[in-house]
Every structure is written in C-alpha cells, then in structure tokens.
C-alpha cells in the first residue's frame, strides 16, 4: 500500500448526466483563436495551419459553476464561454488519435476565465501568459453529456449571459478548427489520455466580470450551467 507524506488532494471531477459516476479530470487543454471574430477583437489573426494551445491545471475546474471567487492579482477578469470536449480513451500518438476519433466521451460547456490585464502585460513583453489563464478556479464547467445522448452538437449555438444580458453567442459550426482537427494537432504534441478536457475556444464578445455578477452559459438543447462571481 502506497503512503503519502500528506493527504493526497481530491481528484478533480465533473458530473456526468444520467450517471452516478464522475468524470475524473486529467489535463485541461485550451484552444486559442478558434473563432475568427474573437481573434479579430483581440487584435490577432487566425493561422489555419497552426492552432494555438495553452493549458490550465486540472484543479482549476469548478464543477457545475456555483460560487466562483474573484481571483487575486487582477483588476480585469474576463469571461470566455467555450464548448468542452471530454476524452474517454487514450490517444497517445497521432495515428491513434486518427483511428479512434480522439475517443470523445462527451460534451459540456465551460468558462475560460482570463486575467486580461496580466495577459496584455505579458504579451507586450513577449513573455508567456500562463498566469493569465492557469489560476485557481479559472475553469468553471457544466456536467458532461455523453456522446450517445448529445445528438448533432455542431449545428447548435454556444452562448453566455451575464446578469441576464446576452454577452457572447455563435454557432459551433463557426469554429475554425473542428474537434477532429484539434485532437489531431494535440496528439502531435502530447500523449492524450482518458480524462483530458479540451476547451474549444470562444466567440466574440469577451468582457469583464465583476464581483456579484451572475452568469449563465450553455449550448442550445444540450447543456447549460450557471454561477456567480464571489
């Protein structure tokens, strides 16, 4: 029996619709600039041959939303609503990713919370912007809907409301890189594992979240969740 020098932290998990079993989160991969209009509002261009990736720690997940603390070190917290893709099988090499289609287990919706002022400062200096993306509680996410129950996901609309006002929306068919594209490209760089999540990028309309703000996010006729900034 393995012993640890202190109690091991709880495994980050997301609930699964229709099941008592939880989905254990291994890694969180995120896709940048996957909606052309968002890239434009951020002053960037889309390179269709080279998707932009970054990561968040698995324990950044806030299952089901609810209370999300306003993070330290920023005065400009932004929302980015995204489709979440959950992998249920390993795809440790590029050819395996192609053969099994990435092993998608299910879909959800999440927020890629961003400390925009820290990101802008890092970009201006040509430095990495991990601190802008990979902080505590930076990935609130909904339950996962298994593929068998999800239907035609990519004909639907992704959206976010803040305090009852629609802030972001776009058809998922507007994504520059499809799920298959992203799994293929990620598999060139990482050994993808069951438990990995992929946040698929955000449409235009990103803006600030303030303490006390309430958000509600979803994909039409698939899944939604809500919470507030504490």
Short description:
The chain has six helices and 17 strands. It is an alpha+beta fold and about 230 residues long.
The helix tally amounts to: 6
Please give the share of residues in helix: 10-25%
Secondary-structure class: alpha+beta
| Number of strand segments | 17
Looking at CATH, which topology would you report? Fumarylacetoacetate hydrolase, domain 2
Give the averaged pLDDT, no decimals: 92
**Rg, Cα atoms, Å:** 17 Å
CATH superfamily: Fumarylacetoacetase-like, C-terminal domain
How far the N terminus sits from the C terminus, by CA atoms, comes to: 41 Å
Strand/helix succession: EEEHEEEEEHEEHHEEHEEHEEE
Number of domains: 1
Identify the CATH architecture.
Answer: Alpha-Beta Complex
Strand order of the largest sheet: 4-3-15-8-9-12
Largest sheet: 6 strands, mixed
Percent of sequence in beta strands: 25-35%
- The first-level CATH class is given as Alpha Beta
Low-pLDDT runs: none
Provide structural commentary.
This protein is globular. It is built from 6 helices and 17 strands. Strand 1 and strand 2 form a beta hairpin. With 230 residues, the chain is an alpha+beta fold. It has a single domain (21-229), classed as Fumarylacetoacetate hydrolase, domain 2 (Alpha-Beta Complex), CATH 3.90.850.10. It starts with 12 loop residues before the first strand and ends with a strand. The model has no long low-confidence stretch (mean pLDDT 92). Helix content is 17%, strand content 33%. It has a 6-stranded mixed sheet with strand order 4-3-15-8-9-12. Strands 6-17-16-13-14 form a 5-stranded mixed sheet, with no helix packed on it.
